Amino acid sequence: MALLQVENLVKKFPVRGGILNRIQGYVHAVSGVSFEIPEGQTLGVVGESGCGKSTLGKTVIRLYEPTDGRIVLKGKDITALGPAEMMPFRRKMQIIFQDPYSSLNPRLTINGHIKEAVRFHNIVPPGSATDDYIDEVLQKVGLRPEAKNKYPHEFSGGQRQRIGIARALCVKPDFVVADEPVSALDVSIQAQVLNLLSDLKEQFGLTMMFISHDLKVVEHFCDRILVMYLGHVVEELEADDLDQQAQHPYTKALLGANPIDDPDDRRPLVVLQGDVPSPYNPPKGCPFVTRCPVATERCRQEMPRLETKSAGHRVACFEVE
Fold it and tell me: How many other CB atoms sit within 10 Å of the CB of residue 320?
């Protein structure tokens, strides 16, 4: 059963200008994205910077209001719920932010960060039980209970990210968006945080959306993968099939740019020319047409749809049989 279903999700940001500050156009950040995440599984979202990964994650949990489409959590359409109706679902959906340095309030102790969320959502009865619960949460993310009396600036980046994870998990969510949770950390610390997330996922039975640039991390950590380009999903497949079954030219280019473990395991290198087009003025037809090495005239005129190529594998490309 799918814990989360997203149907034709669209997020556009208005661009205003002129003397009257009128809307002059829109930035097309997410364009008609559909997917579902079964309970207990992790969906990886990959793509270049600016492709809409983080916007997708924040729109799914309604930190950004969707422009169009549907978001269904545990069978309930939450797309248009008002603030009061949405409140119970806020607890069920949490996010781990990318930057552990800017996502914590420097004026609050760690105790303040977590206690605020615990009290607001009535996770435990007020009183000493709250302090005991906070100690328990900190221990689960690998921090000592006495750390709760310190301020964010007294911790390293990896420790701050553990605090961010504790803040997300302290309200006992069903669904967590991990928005590039290790990209701002040293390589030596990344593995520790990823192992922690993996352990917590198993311990709490979490359903997750894991956003990352690193295909190797996503392939290891996730069950399925969405490949995004300029706000569109160009390929969706099982994580175990990424290396051998990827078919879209963009996915192949990402894989070709990824470091390989075995120097004898060579694969054709697809070098993309040019930059990602502006989401303010996306190209007509396929979003990848301006950089695609196999683009045809049809690609320049018509938008390809995600077509099922095999069980659990969808590709949006006219040139893929």
Answer: 14
Which residues of the chain register pLDDT less than 50?
none
Token digits of residue 92: 């069920």
Sign of CA dihedral 65, 317, 42, 155: negative
State the Cα–Cα distance between residues 103 and 244, nearest whole angstrom.
Answer: 37
Q: What residues are paired with 68 via a beta bridge?
A: 10
Cβ-based neighbour number of residue 258 at 10 Å:
14
Domain spanning 2-315: CATH superfamily: P-loop containing nucleotide triphosphate hydrolases (3.40.50.300)
Q: What is the Cα–Cα distance from 273 to 170, expressed in whole angstroms? A: 45
pLDDT at position 77 is 96
* pTM (two decimals): 0.93
The per-residue b/e assignment along 50-70, b for 16 or more CB within 10 angstroms, e otherwise, is: bbbbbbbbbbbbbebebbebe
DSSP string, 281-303: SPPSS-TTTTT-TT--HHHHHSP
How far is it, in rounded angstroms, from Cα 39 to Cα 73?
A: 11
